[in-house]
């Protein structure tokens, strides 16, 4: 009997509900989410929960058993909660489809930082590129960064280091961080030589991470590369998906201009990790240290989001805004969204398409649920859900869109414009790419981002002249516009 | 459907920014372009951005174009321009009166906002208005100046205008 789950919440009934109420609630849920009625991927996933809930609560005998077992969890606080803001509370009745945005915030237990805070024990694997192109200042900075990480860690933490070029070497096998001087000297002997084949390095890294993998730890692989890997990208992505299933996250960092950012994005997103662009070797130290520090700041880990829209609602996209901005794939579900830190919510902007609807009244839109391991208190598989509904009316009062959504969308639009320019160029449509970059420059200026606007203009000009973007400019624009998403909202920091 | 007034792209209802060109449709209203791209002479291009500037020369003047009204309003050099609407019942000292543009119905306060001249920039300040002041769709915090740029869209309540430097 799995009493760790709140089956009543899943069926949306109070614990004192009659058997009849429970049956009725199940019937309504089944109509919304049963795979025969609802083609959405997330719906299937959530229907399994609903069916499991009904299996327990639908019959008095298992229900009594469950109720007894559940007492243990009665005093359980809300370790984290979901806060969902729709772009509009009241939609206009329309005979055409319309877009609705949901801002989902996963908020940690209030005062968690004061009451239960502790450094999350890390099981960290560094996978470091030592190909020939890393020679010199890049590798030196990587060593400095790795030395500092060794200093940050304690004997509760597990560290392993894998280096790779066209082959992988386990430089430091997974183990407790005790003899720091010898760890440091092992890192110092890294030499740059050879090509870049990420898969070997990543596979060896994930293997090392598996050795001490545990539900009470942050299990994470940090990959740092400056190169482009050839032919093994699909293998890497399959590995990342497997790693995510095993509770291992991957963060990917690229130095310089050669590496394949789309690939590293997908790699990180598949595990709920982050990807970052490090434009100068000197920033390597800060980036790596920050990443490891924020890993240690995890209140909950392995958050998994599932989005089940109603049968006639389309899930179009989702983008993670906080604690770092990261594109996320909405399929397959559940979607790994990484860690929840003590002081910052995880926020995700979800775009849905509503069907034409001329009927007034309330209607359900989607059900969101999030599961995670609360490291601070050792609670695994904690789950919360939120059922979203909106009102539809003939002539609703005009309403101001929530500033948080407007702000996020404004910035996301910039990021997407840049992405579209890239796509246009890939398709060989130079004029369209130029126009998109010019539009982007205009919008960036309107947003007060003069440097990025200038960069967009330079690239627009370059594209119109040479039919190409510079790698540096492309990455600066992509990660520059993405970084805007992580900035505080206007008004929080003034002009 | 929502047709972008800037690029004519047809968007679905409910979007806040044109999916094609990023043009904002804040408050569910289409607005005119906030700034125009001025193509540089091909040879002289140096990657410099010359439109949407925040720099406001000492001897420059401001042109205000109120939406749905053709006649631009030209404002010569004044240090502070208080914008509001005259109300016979409660007179107040304002420099730009929006009453003739239907301000009362559009929710403009008697003293709504002001444009202030700085060293070589202009700033827009919300003067504790009832319905708020928006700069390019973003609501201003009362009494907190924000830099105005050539071509910016300003919204007082539901009255929309654009500011140009001349």
Question: What's the Cα radius of gyration of chain A?
Answer: 24 Å
CATH architecture of the largest domain in chain B: Sandwich
Q: Return Rg of chain B in Å.
A: 17 Å
Q: Looking across the biggest beta sheet of chain A, what order are the strands in?
A: 6-5-4-7-8-9
CATH class of the domain at 122-296 in chain A: Alpha Beta
Q: Helical amount among residues of chain B, as a percent range?
A: under 10%
Class of secondary structure makeup of chain A: alpha/beta
Average pLDDT number of chain B: 76
In terms of per-residue confidence, which ranges of chain B show pLDDT below 50 for 5 or more consecutive residues? 27-51
Domain count of chain B: 2
Highest-level CATH class of the largest domain in chain B: Mainly Beta
Topology:
The complex is a heterodimer of chains A (495) and B (166).
Chain A: H1 7-11, H2 19-33, H3 41-57, H4 60-70, E1 80-86, E2 90-92, E3 98-108, H5 112-115, E4 122-129, H6 137-152, E5 158-164, E6 168-176, H7 180-188, H8 198-211, E7 218-225, H9 233-245, E8 249-255, H10 261-269, E9 275-278, H11 283-296, E10 298-309, E11 314-322, E12 326-328, E13 335-341, E14 346-354, E15 361-374, E16 379-393, H12 403-426, H13 430-446, H14 450-466, H15 471-484
Parallel strand pairs in A: 2-16, 4-5, 4-7, 7-8, 8-9
Antiparallel strand pairs in A: 1-3, 3-14, 5-6, 10-13, 10-15, 11-12, 11-14, 15-16
Chain B: E1 2-3, E2 10-11, E3 62-66, E4 73-75, E5 80-84, E6 96-97, E7 111-117, E8 122-126, E9 133-135, E10 138-139, E11 146-148, E12 153-156, E13 159-165
Parallel strand pairs in B: 5-6
Antiparallel strand pairs in B: 1-2, 3-4, 3-13, 5-7, 7-8, 8-11, 9-10, 9-12, 12-13
